[in-house]
């Protein structure tokens, strides 16, 4: 309850304070809108840009796939994002028609993070991009052909993928098998791989998705193969709306109400019930051990009970990760994204070097020139050595000196080649690092715009 002012002047003070607060709030809102306009103006996200999400278990080859297409150091991208988010962003130019952004998503078999937290992160990215009208071309799901069977974690990744997409979007999913080269050392390896592909077509695995127009492809590890897989999605007309995007953005469902959330929640509830039954049994065992005055058994059962209770608590916390709406995530992440954008802009400014591209091209030209001179000198040297065997004795001394001079020239050129190659490699690394920073900045700006919008309109959402 608000206390009434005891004096008229106190009433005036309260009225003035309320007016000041209203003016401050209006000013803050105006500044936020202006800030967003500036942010939108600085957003270098081309109209021809499309996004493809990569999914699959840990070790399925996502990083290698991305490196082939983008010529980016995927390791650098992950290191830069390790303190923020596990989703990596990389890009490349597709046939001079599209800038393609690849989202490297974490697998649902991460021993360091619960699946519910990973789902929340992936769902947020996909929903926010959809809300910002960014074109999603589809999803590439990678699976190791070397796996002798579809493991529980692989099946879990697959089921979550199916629920994220929804059956209507299966035609925008490429199911790609990787690690085929590993089978080359095995007798009849390729035939074994083909047999496993047939097994993957069974209804309990990829069968339903293939029936609804998902595409199965072999990825042999080459750039041409990766490009072919990407083309299956980009060359299709239009974009795709995933189940998770429609449910969280259009229907305003919380994550636990979505199909993907319900699937994960079902698993969590089943696991929790299992541990609760175990706890009930252990309580009975403890009571019996107490009656029998068996101190050692009491201690063992008590430790097992505490371990089971800890697992129940963890499962409950994981379940709570799902009980969140898109606007709640946006509100929670708003400050983080603003800080991240500022940090990325500072990092780019610190590494800004307008002459870098010119220097890189100059080094590339030098490298080609030295390689050409080196090749010519080596060819000339071989000719002179062959000639030396044919000439008269009186010419041998002069030709020997000429050969020695050529070999000296070759040694000098080889040294120059090494130096220029190292400089070129360093400049290329710096360029790739700036590219990774730029990619992350573009996406963080997009997500920040989305977060700010939801933060201001939060009262209209759950």
Automatic annotation (TrEMBL):
Residues 52-109 form the G domain. Keywords: Coiled coil. It comes from Trichoderma gamsii. It holds the Pfam family MMR_HSR1. GO terms for molecular function: GTP binding. This is G domain-containing protein. Residues 265-325, 360-423 form a coiled coil. InterPro entries: GTP-bd, P-loop_NTPase.
């Amino acid at each position: 309850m608000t206390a009434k002012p005891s004096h008229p002047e106190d009433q005036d003070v309260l009225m003035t304070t309320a007016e000041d607060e209203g003016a401050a709030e209006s000013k803050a809102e105006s500044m936020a809108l202006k800030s967003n306009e500036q942010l939108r103006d600085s957003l270098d996200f081309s109209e021809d840009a499309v996004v493809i999400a990569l999914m699959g278990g840990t070790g399925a080859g996502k990083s290698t796939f991305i490196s082939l297409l983008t010529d980016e150091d995927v390791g650098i991208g992950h290191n830069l994002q390790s303190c923020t988010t596990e989703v990596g962003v990389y890009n490349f130019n597709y046939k001079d028609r599209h800038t393609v952004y690849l989202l490297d998503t974490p697998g649902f078999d991460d021993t360091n993070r619960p699946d519910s937290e990973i789902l929340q992160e992936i769902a947020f990215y996909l929903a926010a991009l959809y809300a910002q009208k960014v074109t999603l071309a589809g999803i590439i799901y990678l699976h190791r052909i070397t796996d002798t069977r579809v493991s529980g974690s692989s099946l879990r990744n697959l089921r979550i993928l199916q629920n994220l997409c929804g059956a209507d979007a299966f035609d925008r999913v490429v199911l790609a098998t990787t690690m085929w080269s590993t089978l080359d050392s095995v007798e009849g390896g390729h035939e074994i791989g083909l047999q496993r592909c047939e097994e993957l077509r069974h209804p309990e695995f990829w069968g339903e998705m293939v029936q609804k127009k998902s595409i199965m492809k072999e990825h042999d590890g080459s750039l041409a193969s990766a490009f072919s897989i990407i083309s299956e999605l980009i060359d299709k007309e239009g974009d795709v709306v995933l189940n998770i995007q429609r449910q969280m953005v259009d229907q305003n469902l919380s994550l636990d109400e979505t199909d993907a959330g319900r699937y994960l929640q079902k698993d969590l509830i089943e696991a929790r019930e299992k541990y609760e039954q175990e706890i009930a049994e252990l309580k009975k065992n403890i009571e019996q051990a107490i009656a029998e005055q068996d101190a050692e058994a009491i201690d063992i059962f008590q430790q097992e009970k505490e371990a089971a209770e800890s697992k129940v608590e963890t499962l409950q916390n994981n379940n709570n990760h799902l009980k969140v709406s898109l606007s709640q995530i946006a509100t929670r992440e708003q400050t983080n994204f603003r800080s991240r954008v500022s940090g990325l802009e500072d990092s780019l400014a610190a590494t800004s070097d307008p002459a870098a591209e010119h220097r890189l091209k100059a080094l590339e030209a030098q490298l080609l020139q030295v390689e050409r001179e080196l090749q010519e000198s080596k060819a000339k040297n071989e000719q002179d050595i062959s000639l030396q065997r044919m000439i008269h004795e009186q010419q041998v001394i002069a030709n020997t000196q000429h050969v020695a001079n050529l070999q000296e020239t070759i040694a000098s050129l080889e040294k120059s080649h090494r130096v220029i190659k190292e400089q070129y490699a360093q400049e290329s690394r710096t360029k790739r690092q700036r590219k990774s920073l730029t990619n992350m900045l573009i996406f963080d700006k997009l997500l920040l715009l989305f977060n700010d919008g939801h933060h201001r309109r939060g009262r209209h959402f759950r």
